[in-house]
Design brief:
Elements: H1 3-15, H2 18-24, H3 29-43, H4 59-63, H5 65-86, E1 91-97, H6 98-103, H7 105-115, E2 120-126, H8 128-136, E3 142-147, E4 160-174, H9 176-183, E5 192-196, H10 202-210, H11 212-218, E6 221-226, H12 230-238, E7 244-247, H13 248-257, E8 261-262, E9 270-279, H14 284-296
Parallel strand pairs: 1-2, 1-3, 5-6
Antiparallel strand pairs: 3-9, 4-7, 4-8, 4-9
């Protein structure tokens, strides 16, 4: 069996025509038809119902189109992987909190690519505790995470160099309709429907330490949904299922377009440092990581919702400035 036969068959699936598929594959139609027949002979099944016009696939062929596509994709992926390994180019693994994988890592990776165009990267998305563990165990070289004064990562300087990239904030938001109803007089004692993070999660800890108690002292809160994924809570907030504290970098476009609105009078926002940790080690990777750390000391590669902050490369155990009240 030749890989080109599978490529021919995928072209036939996508074009639905022998002539169009042959043209895409840059062969004559008779030669293309013969290659499809050879694939059928190798498989031992008939893929094309040649008794009907226009082109029609047999039931067994139609049921396995996705399998054909997946097989071809895996073959090419394997070829790419083994070719990369043969070049002996060291990979860097970047691990990030789930939300940051979507909202910040693409911009961060773009900047790394500008510095090291030939470098390979692997991206891992984890909750914060697992992400920190990966860095501490040497399973990742770069960690992108959030920190607050009350919830530092606690990674010691001998393990990694710490760089503050900017400031994000958890903002209490609601859909326009729910925002309007919550802005009305609350004398009726109507509850505030809440979309929450689990108490053991990082966002759950931050909200419960710095914002939720104040809201609960003045309002009755009813928890409608609990999820550790900010993206999932965002979707529920968009359709009016409740209010939620969400990272500004994740909802910057929603706020700009008015799809979500801040509830500043109901619940305070919470500032969070956006931090990168670059592992300290030996060998070629250590020199590369130190260069990257030094390059980011000038400030963040900003994305919407993330504000610049002056570099503070000291460890989390160093004294921090007292946080000013959120206005």
């Amino acid at each position: 069996m030749e890989l080109k036969w599978l490529d021919d068959y995928i072209a036939l699936i996508e074009t639905g025509s022998f002539s169009a598929a042959a043209k895409r594959r840059h062969v004559s139609q008779p030669a293309f038809s013969r290659r499809i027949q050879l694939l059928e002979e190798w498989l031992g099944v008939t893929l094309i119902d040649r008794a009907r016009k226009p082109l029609r696939f047999t039931p067994v062929a139609g049921e396995n189109h996705a399998a054909f596509r997946g097989l071809v994709a895996r073959i090419y992926e394997f070829r790419s992987t083994i070719k990369s390994e043969s070049l002996d180019i060291a990979d860097l693994t970047i691990v990030a909190q789930h939300t940051l994988t979507t909202s910040y890592v693409p911009a961060f990776l773009k900047r790394l690519r500008q510095m090291e165009p030939e470098q390979n990267f692997r991206i891992r998305s984890e909750n914060r505790s697992d992400a920190v563990t990966m860095l501490m165990r040497g399973q990742a070289e770069i960690l992108i995470t959030y920190e607050t004064a009350q919830t530092p990562c606690g990674i010691p300087p001998p393990i990694a160099q710490r760089q503050v990239l900017g400031v994000d904030r958890l903002v209490l938001v609601a859909s326009p309709a729910l925002h309007a109803s919550l802005g009305a007089p609350r004398g009726d004692g109507a509850p505030v429907p809440m979309l929450c993070f689990p108490p053991e999660s990082f966002f759950g800890q931050v909200v419960r330490l710095e914002a939720l108690p104040e809201l609960m002292r003045g309002h009755q809160v009813v928890v409608r949904c609990v999820s550790e994924f900010a993206i999932g809570l965002r979707e529920l907030a968009l359709v009016g299922q409740g209010v939620a504290w969400l990272p500004g970098s994740l909802i910057a476009d929603d706020l700009r377009r008015g799809r979500l609105r801040p509830l500043e009078t109901l619940g305070r926002s919470v500032d969070m440092d956006l931090v990168a940790y670059f592992a300290v080690g030996s060998g070629d990777k250590a020199a590369l990581l130190d260069r990257q750390f030094q390059a980011f000391r000038g400030g963040a590669d900003l994305v919407p919702g993330v504000a610049a902050k002056r570099s503070r490369a000291a460890s989390p155990d160093s004294p921090r400035r007292k946080k000013s009240p959120v206005r």
